[in-house]
Write a structure and sequence with these properties.
Largest sheet: 8 strands, mixed
Helix content: 25-40%
Shape: globular
Number of strands: 8
Distance between the termini: 35 Å
């Protein structure tokens, strides 16, 4: 299934007041994604798991979009590899290419490009948290629909964030941030204070990016949890476990 590819400045046709729920994602190619999970996984298994993460995250967003004024987008890299997402996303999802060199630049350009496509608010969401609670996504959309400017942040246990939502472009939120460290959330909150921007905090969650958090995910998926029911991820991890038992 092909998906519409947005061009910056081209109206997305999402309607007045629509919030973009945009997943920042790499094309799931072996050796290019989830490299810190190999080992314990092989590069092929890590890429397949990443595919499951994208499926579960976008299905979660699709359900939110059906019950709120929001739309699902994947902001992807590398350029020209959009076919990697064919038949991977729910119907109606949109694609937008990433721009910029460093991670901060890519977040800035993603926000700028989505606002240029006439979205009223933008949430940038990671693709490493397949069980992020649906209630957190709904809360982000609701907070961003209220009058007044603000930033919405969903912090991760490692000190980063799984979601950042804004109503207008604030480049300062992405400047002088020590990306991929435990200081990201705290520094982002400090940037918000510097520009007198109200910050709303969603419940903390976690990213899956190493063996320890992968094991945490296995345990969570086997128990009752407040998180999203990541069925694709569960099924794939169960298949790996079954193959090792043979």
């Amino acid at each position: 299934m092909p998906y519409k590819i947005l061009q910056p400045g081209e109206p997305a046709g999402a309607g007045v007041g629509c919030c973009a729920l945009a997943v920042m994602a790499k094309a799931p190619r072996p050796g290019k994604v989830k490299t810190r999970l190999s080992p314990p996984l092989t590069p092929h298994q890590a890429a397949q798991l990443n595919t499951c993460f994208i499926r579960d995250t976008t299905e979660n967003i699709h359900q939110v979009a059906e019950s709120s004024n929001s739309a699902g987008i994947v902001v992807y890299t590398p350029a020209g590899d959009e076919t990697a997402f064919d038949n991977l996303l729910p119907p109606g999802f949109l694609l937008l290419g990433q721009r910029g060199d460093g991670f901060g630049e890519r977040l800035i350009h993603a926000c700028e490009d989505l606002f240029a496509c006439e979205f009223s608010a933008v949430c940038l969401i990671d693709s490493d948290s397949p069980t992020m609670p649906q209630a957190a996504l709904l809360q982000a959309v609701e907070w961003l629909s209220r009058p007044g400017d603000r930033v919405v942040l969903g912090g991760s246990d490692d000190g980063g964030y799984y979601l950042i939502g804004v109503k207008r472009m604030h480049r300062r939120l992405f400047e002088q941030i020590d990306w991929s460290t435990e200081r990201v959330l705290a520094q982002t909150l400090e940037r918000a204070r510097e520009i007198s921007l109200e910050a709303e905090l969603l419940p903390a969650w976690y990213d899956v990016d190493d063996a320890a958090t992968l094991e945490r995910l296995r345990v969570e998926l086997g128990e009752a949890s407040a998180g999203y029911d990541a069925k694709h991820t569960r099924a794939y991890l169960d298949s790996i476990t079954a193959s090792r038992a043979c």
